[in-house]
Structure formats: C-alpha cells, structure tokens
Specification:
Number of strands of chain A: 16
Structural class of chain A: alpha+beta
Oligomer: homodimer
Largest interface: A-B, 97 and 96 residues
CATH class of the largest domain in chain A: Alpha Beta
Shape of chain A: elongated
Number of helices of chain A: 11
Radius of gyration of chain A: 26 Å
Largest sheet of chain A: 8 strands, mixed
CATH topology of the largest domain in chain A: BirA Bifunctional Protein, domain 2
Distance between the termini of chain A: 38 Å
Strand order of the largest sheet of chain A: 6-10-11-16-15-14-13-12
Order of helices and strands of chain A: EEEEEHHHEEEEHEEHHEHHEEEHHEH
Amino acid sequence: MNTIRTTDLSQYIGARVRLHGWLHNLRQMGGVSFLVLRDGYGTAQVVSENETDLAPLTNLPLESVIILEGDVVHTPQAPGGVELHRPHVTVITSNSEAPPVAIHKKEIKAGLPTLLDHAVIANRHPQRRAVFRLAAGVMAGFRTTLNNLGFTEIQTPKMVASATESGANVFKLDYFGRPAYLAQSPQFYKQIMVGVFERVYEVGPVFRAEPHDTSRHVNEYVSLDVEFGFIENHFTVMALLCDVIAGIFATLSQQHTAELTLLHANIPTIPAEIPHIHFAAAQELILQLHGVDVRGEPDLSPQDERWLGEWAQQEHGSDFLFVAGYPMGKRPFYTHPDPANPAYSNSFDLLFRGTELVTGGQRLHLYSDYLAALDKAGLPAEPFAAYLEAFRYGMPPHGGFAIGLERLLMQLLGLPNLRLATLFPRDMQRLAP
Amino acid sequence: MNTIRTTDLSQYIGARVRLHGWLHNLRQMGGVSFLVLRDGYGTAQVVSENETDLAPLTNLPLESVIILEGDVVHTPQAPGGVELHRPHVTVITSNSEAPPVAIHKKEIKAGLPTLLDHAVIANRHPQRRAVFRLAAGVMAGFRTTLNNLGFTEIQTPKMVASATESGANVFKLDYFGRPAYLAQSPQFYKQIMVGVFERVYEVGPVFRAEPHDTSRHVNEYVSLDVEFGFIENHFTVMALLCDVIAGIFATLSQQHTAELTLLHANIPTIPAEIPHIHFAAAQELILQLHGVDVRGEPDLSPQDERWLGEWAQQEHGSDFLFVAGYPMGKRPFYTHPDPANPAYSNSFDLLFRGTELVTGGQRLHLYSDYLAALDKAGLPAEPFAAYLEAFRYGMPPHGGFAIGLERLLMQLLGLPNLRLATLFPRDMQRLAP
C-alpha cells in the first residue's frame, strides 16, 4: 500500500489507504474518538467507535509522528467531505510532552511573542504554514512571469566591500581580518547584470541594520528584485511591474486556493493598467480632500499613503496606485531625474491597499551622470569603482524595482505584523529561532 | 517596428527588423564592413558594403550601445545562417574608451586575475555569460523537479545566533552590538521545516569562513538544499538525488542547447540507478586496483575520488558514483549512524567525474538521540535550543542533501577553477567586484 497525501483522499473513496503525519488532535465524544492527522499538505479526520483501534495513542502527546491506515468514506459533513474509518495506527516518534504552543485549534490563540519564540512549532499550525506556502507561490509566480518575458535569474554576492547606497544602516562583518558588509540590496549587481543579460531578476535575502522597532520592519527579508534595459522611462518599468503583480496573483489564485481560503484572503483584481498619479498631484489631492497641506514635504507619510489608497479605491476601484515622480532629494544617487523637471525623479512607489509595497524607477545610465551624481551626493567615486565600470563601458537606459516578499504577504493577508509573514524573523531583539 | 531578439532572427527572413544591444565587434575586410551586435541573448552579424551605413560607428569604442535596423537575409555561411543587410544604426550610449578586457573574440584570452578583476565587463562575453545562464537553468531544473514531487520552497535566515555545525569557520558580524554569525548552511532550518511541510528545498547563499586558497573553494556560494521526511534511510535520499540531478540535466538539455554548444559541454546520461559503493568497500577497491592502502582513513582524498570516478566509468559506464556509509567520526553530530554498524553512518557523497559534488544522508530524528550526540561531540545543548525544539515535539525519520551550484557547473563544464562558475566570487583576497 502506497502512502498518499491527505489532500488526495477524495480520490480514494471506498479504498483502504495509508497516511503518515503528526497527531494533530484527538478527542472523545460520547464513546466516539475523533483523530486528526496532519501531514505536510493538509489534515484528515479519522472516526472510530472501537476503543482498541486507537489504543496505541493512549497518553501520547500531540505532535507525535504516526502512520495510519484506514478506509476512506465519503462523509459530506466531515471537513473536506471525507473521513477515515477502521483505523490502524503505528507510532513512529513518540513525544514525551505536549507542544509549548497549542496548534491543534482552528485559530491559533498564542500572542505574538509566544508565536515567535516557538516559531519552530507554531509554524506547523495549518494557518501559519499556509502563509509560508503562499510565500513559495509568490516566488514561483514572480519567476514564471519573468522567465516568460526573457529574464534571467541571477544570484549576487551578499558580502560586499562597501555599503550599497550609503554608509548607514549596514551590518558590518569581519572578513578575514578586514571589514566587509552585508548587502542592503542587490541594486548594484542587478544593474551591472543588465549589461550581460539585458533582463535579470533575483530572489534573495537583503540585510538592513535599521534600528526600527515597528510592525512593518524586520532586519533581514526576502527581496524580489528586477532590473532591465532598453526602457523608455519609468513608465516602462511600471508596466512590467503591473504584469509581474498580475502574474503573482494569478499563480496564487490557480495553485493556492486552499491556503487562500484557510486565511480568508481575497486576491485583488489587477486592472489592465494600474492608475497612477504624480507625486505633486498626490499632495495637491490630499490638500483638496483632507485639508492637510503636505506640499513641499519630500516624501509621503503613512497617513498620506492611506488617504491615497482610499482615493484609488473610490475613484478607480483599484487596490493599487502608482505614485510617480518623487522628488530627487529623497531618492538614491543612481535615480534618473525627470528630464522635464529635474527636481522630480523618474521613480515611483506602488501603493497596495494604502501601503507602499514596491519602490522602483529608471536609473542613470551614463558614466558622466554617475560621476556628477556621486559628486552631488558628496560620495567619493573610489568605493564604487566596480559598479561604475559597467557604465564606463556601455549601459542602455534601464530601470527596475524590488518587491518585499513579506510585505506583499502581510498586505495581501491583512496580517497585523510583518513578523507574521516571516518564517524566522530577525529584529533588534530577535536573532533566534 | 518592434524590437526583436537576435536569437529570433531566423523567424524574420526577408523582413526588416530592429535590434538593440552592444557593439560587440566591427571589422573591415576589403571594403566590406562586418558588424556584430550583441544583445542579452545572442549576437547578430551585419554586413555592409556601403560606408555611410555605418558612419555613426566611426571611432566608436566597442561595447557602446546601439539600435540597429536591417534586412534579414538567409546566408548559410553566416553564424546562425542569418545576417543583416542595409543597416541603419543609432547610437544610444557612446563610450569614450575601449573595454579593459577584450570580449569580442570567440574565446576570451585574459588570465584569471584579469577576468575576475573586470568580471563586470568580462561576464558579458558570450561564453562567460553562457555559464551563468546555465546557472539559471540549474536552479530552474532543481525547482521544477522538486515542485513536481510535492516539495515547498523556503527562505531561511542567514544571520544566526550561533554557528550551524561548530564554532569554526563562521563569519562573525555585529548585530546591534551583540555577536551574530552568517549561516554556513540552512541545515538546521531545513530540518525544522520538515516538521511543517514534510518536503522542503531552498536555493540561497551560504557563507564559509574557511581559510582555503584552492581552485575548488570560495567563501560564499549558492547552495541547492533539500530535506524531506518519512524516509526509510539514506538510500531514499540517494534515490531522490538521482531524480533531481536527472531533472536538472533534462532542463539544461531541453532549454539551453545554445549555451551547452557554445561551451562544448557534454551532458552526462544519468543511469536509472546511480551505482553505489560502501565507503569501506571503496577503500578496499583502491588497495586492490592501485596498491595504496587507505583503509582506516576517515575520509577519501581527492586522489581517492579520482580513482573511484575512473572505476565508476570503466565498471558502470557512469559519470556518477555514490559512496555511502562514511565513518561517523568525520560527519556532523546530526548524522544518523548505520544501525547495523554504528561506526559508519547513513550518509553519502555523490562523486561526479571523480570529484565530490553532493553530500547528504539521513539525520537523527529522536530528541534523545540529539542530546546524546551533542554530549558525545562535547557540544552544549543550550545554543541549539530552538533547533532541538523541533525534535522534542515530533519529527519523522528524515534526510537530505546540498548541491553546490558553482561546483556542479565547474564539473559539468570542465572549468579549471570554481571562480569561473561564480558570478562575482568571494575568496580570501577578493571582496570585489
């Protein structure tokens, strides 16, 4: 008898099958035992009125590992419409104590610190692990969409000789006796690689030593990075981003219905073109609609973003809004200015449900522009020598963006804290598990 | 007119098309100009007898960025059977000097230090970039094979509170004033995640502070990690590895013929079952065939591996050989011993063309076994508390392996140095580019 997955049970009605997994729950109700087995994919309910059937489970703590054989019975009122009868149980790993966090209830009750302290076990909860299976779906949808558009996946170094964008907020390490840093982003390398492949993407960890202590920041996260050449301006980048977001959500809708249902998640529809508004017009709109004058501010506040999100919903029926043309002052030195108004940039943020999800834009591509931009930013050229070599020897107009994997999940699932979208989060207080 | 890729030219014979890319080469021969344009995918040859056609390129250094329109002509003797006539050229980015490493020749002539110092430009060479496009193919084949077998992709933290396997050879960093380390492997996290998803994989960077200075080692590389539960023993793991290697090579054969041809690479056939030999039998074989007595040595030397590779080729016609049952002494504490002979382990190496490519095996899964193993290794349990929690609350028999992406490419392509299979290598001397 081959072992099958719990999620395939409905294909075996009338048959006797073998499952393996964890003792997820066991209850007695009026002489009837209800056992729930959890495997890596789902759960299965087992019903028995015969005490000896489940005798091997007597006093066995939850989360012990078992093999179970049983008859698959169509039962409309059972979860999934299927249950198992006439069980035969073998214990594989017998635990000696109950788990430190109760994961057998439908909703997990533990508070955030407990969930994070015991993430090793808490992530086994069906709702918790659904978040991380969706993370896999986001990565898969991201790659599939880009592969189909001729992008090449790259893996760039994370230990670097100098800070990516500035000296601040980088983790410093000891590299055989000399200083090195953890890459804050693959920004420089993905641009360099446009010179090789034209169109590249990377999925990998980025490291930010920001002393933030908010629900929206962690110090290590997974960045979905894109960069490509031969663009017209940042609108070319925004059009690609629209396709990528649509591709990610299509993958989730097609391949992860079970997880989305379990998490009560609602996949937004992506308009063929996501509405966009210029940064200056957005500030005008906030004054007009809310009477708050933010004109002249160099960036949008979280409240500004929420207001704009509401407006996009009301005006365009869209969960998404591009804000384009941020002032140059707040953007990194490699940002391409707006040729028509150089105080503003050819860069954008994508707001999703009123929160910044993606930052992107067109980059400088001329060597002389880089030398001038570094000089203007008061940065020496020498630490950027390798990066600058790409521009010295021919780069096309190019741009790109970076999506924070955990941020996307948090917004999509309405999670109250980014840490709940992170497998094993790192923050100022937390380096383990 | 839409811009097309050089690799699609043969679909446009008789049409006028637009290409974009880099000025890869330009030669004059007896009044005829031969221009080679390189885009992110391939190259195209342009032939012109009319001097004014290519006038915009006068004195323009190679690697400048251009747009080119031309008529597509079927020309059997041209590279790819196609060339462009009646070119019209527009210069997008005009360089001021020639590249620091000549990348327009068929074979790149520069020595290793120059190639690495100028990797930003050298990686544009068609043969160099083919290596890295194959890297993308390896990752894609790895993921596709595992997705089809019910594996879930994970991304685990790279900044960790304690060294993965021992205190040695880890990079230390400053984490908000306290020490942290870069993960030497996702070993602990992938095992933990077997408790969540049963079957997991990860593609990501690993960091080794080994003071090696050899052609086979770098200090940061990409590890293709797999771990899965409910195995019988290490032979279950070896069978999966065989499928994964076959899946990777199938992807390369199907999707990367151009790159394989360019690099004169020869994809090995994977036998339905890769031959295997026990560690002790391998040592006996070496004595028998080569008169060298290595019995009692706790590991195989590179020479031993080469001899065994030759034997596998002669005896089994196989580029691959599993050596199983390494002595426990040289394996990490989580290694499962051979129940029949506890001096040996349920672990293996996979040799590919006489060099170790993959290490894997069955792991301990019982909490009590972990406590005993740590004690035996003289390691305190406390730094491993989070890891041990997984075993305390129920883990099935499980195992896995890790493939070094760059090692696989080096062996497959017959490259003389691992650095040539690494986009931007990190070694004791090199932190840039």
